Amino acid sequence: MEGQKTSGRLVVRTVLVSALLAAVVGALVGVVLSVALGGSEPEGVAGAAERALIERFYEESWNNGDISLIDELFTTDYVLHMQDGRTIGRDGFKIEIPELRSSFPDLSITADEWIMAPGKIIARVTWRGTHTGQGLGIQPSGNRFEASAIYIYRFEGDRIAESWAMFDSLGFRQQLGLL
Questions:
Q1: Range list of H helices, 47-168
Q2: How many other CB atoms are there within 10 angstroms of residue 155's CB atom?
Q3: Spatial strand order in the sheet of 120-130
Q4: How many other CB atoms are found less than 10 A from the CB of residue 120?
Q5: Cα Rg for the chain, rounded, in angstroms?
Q6: Whole-model pTM?
Q7: pLDDT per 10-residue tile (average), the chain, 179 residues
Q8: Is 57 exposed, middle or buried (0-12, 13-18, 19+ CB in 10 A)?
């Protein structure tokens, strides 16, 4: 009976996280559509150069572990706002990327969808990896994970100045066997 209650709670949490992600994407699409239906692209809409910068960050830093370009891509006062209230600056990436890649040597991030908004880019991405390395304070499980995330990026000039993240941490933990 207790196992069924726990299983039921996990299903409810998973459904809630999925619904929240769907609501965020829906709201963002609504903003973009309202801009699009207005007839003209507003000044300051992020474009191809900004998207290429984010793609470069994903490929070179996250997928290949090269943290040397972080200072080039982010403003000195850059901050990432995490869904749990934590923040990470650009120097935090220099610690977090190697740490996560030591836990998940095959870690990769793939952009599935891009949405342009005034002064911002929204990316819906999929994280993948296999937990074969030491790190994160837990023993390697050998489990593979696939988790969705949504990032909103704000630019100052040709650098990322601020971003916000919504990551499926519940699904991530379930797939690693931590829940």
A1: 48-56, 70-73, 90-103
A2: 21
A3: 87-89, 74-81, 159-167, 144-156, 120-130, 108-117
A4: 20
A5: 18
A6: 0.74
A7: 54 44 44 40 65 95 95 96 95 94 96 90 97 86 96 94 96 92
A8: buried
